[in-house]
Amino acid sequence: MNLTTGLSGIVGELRQSEIIGALSHALDLTEGMPAGHAQRCCWIGMHLARELEIDANARDDLYYTLLLKDAGCSSNAARIYSIYRCDDRLLKRDYKRLDSSRVDQLVKFAISHVAPGQTWLERLPILARLVGKGEEIGQEVFLTRCEQGAEIAQQLGFSATVCDAIRGLDEHWDGQGHPHRLKGEDIPLFSRIALISQVVEVFFAEGGVPAALHAIRARRGSWFDPQLVEQMERLALDEAFWDGLRAPDIAGRIVALQPPECVREISSAELARLSGAFAAVIDAKSPYTFGHSSRVCQYAERIGREAGLGEAELFWLRQAALLHDIGKLGISNRILDKPGKLTDEEFAEVKRHPVYSLDILSRLGVFESLAPVASGHHERLDGKGYPHGLKGSQIDVATRMIAVADVFDAISAERPYRGAMPLSQALAILDEQSGDALDGDFVAALKRTL
What we know:
- The protein is mostly helical.
- It has helices at residues 16-30, 37-51, 56-67, 77-84, 88-95, 103-113, 120-155, 160-167, 189-218, 226-235, 239-246, 250-257, 268-283, 292-307, 311-323, 333-336, 344-350, 353-361, 370-375, 397-412, 423-433, 440-449.
């Protein structure tokens, strides 16, 4: 058979900042935020750093703190759903607008977000648990997010300064934040800058400059370092700053903001490490997807080697397999972790995840050919797949390899609606789908390697 694949890419003049900036859109999805949220926070924080006259090397650490501030956000999504029984993305989005130091706002937030659509009889036990154990639950959720985010940053090779800043994102100046109740200057400076940048971005998007300034003034001395509020008010007088925040080309502007002496090109090995780190973010979204991306990568590589792919194509096949489900970060755990059959509406939402994957990966030139390969893993040879209903030779050879690997792992691993399937039964299902849904040659190739 013709083994020409759509796998290609260029590593060499590839800036680390461009890759992480593009992939930060996946983190925005998980947080329920509009695309570019992290990049706009980076714009705000880096301008604050200039006001504070922070030196270039330190600004570089801040730069990646801001882009990766939400790196741990997928790790508490399942827990949030299990507690609140609501869409975790909407809860996270709305929580960013909440002043958690005000009890009245916390009460209204809980009432409006706990198990929407359920009867009061079903909602009251959840609300009672939040009243009784709210502090303990909040501590757990924030700790999970902060520690996972710091671990991802460490895996990517960033400094202890970046890791500690991500770990302290939700700490408040008055010591009433999470997860360690740090207070005042015990909170890393870059954590303080990241938090105020986040709040400015959220409220500016909602109500413009007046809303952003009102939000930080109201929390001066409680959430925020008073000095940072003063610097932000001075920065607010610069209309060019706000114009940049509104600009549609924010991604390019963010790349240009990195101190020139800190710009770093990465190797293929570093690109692979970055893909692996984001695969960990993807798989942390649900306990039922833990390890899925790395296993699909392993199975796809086995198929590729058995089929005779060269080392260059195998490299890109691994990256596509690791990132094939990055769009699932935009799907609520209310759907991903549902133990029963999905409704038509819920399944329609699931079917959007390859579209999200395509959008995220297409933002970066190095992944231009990788994006359709990675995002097509639910297409079927008979044309009955999604999202585009591609058929036969319209489906890339590498995509067919990933599809076999994805189905095999999906049916052999534990799922919310069933336990793990025995190997013999999983292989029998692969055989049944050969020809109609899956490429039979690649099913056979996988079976030979097992």
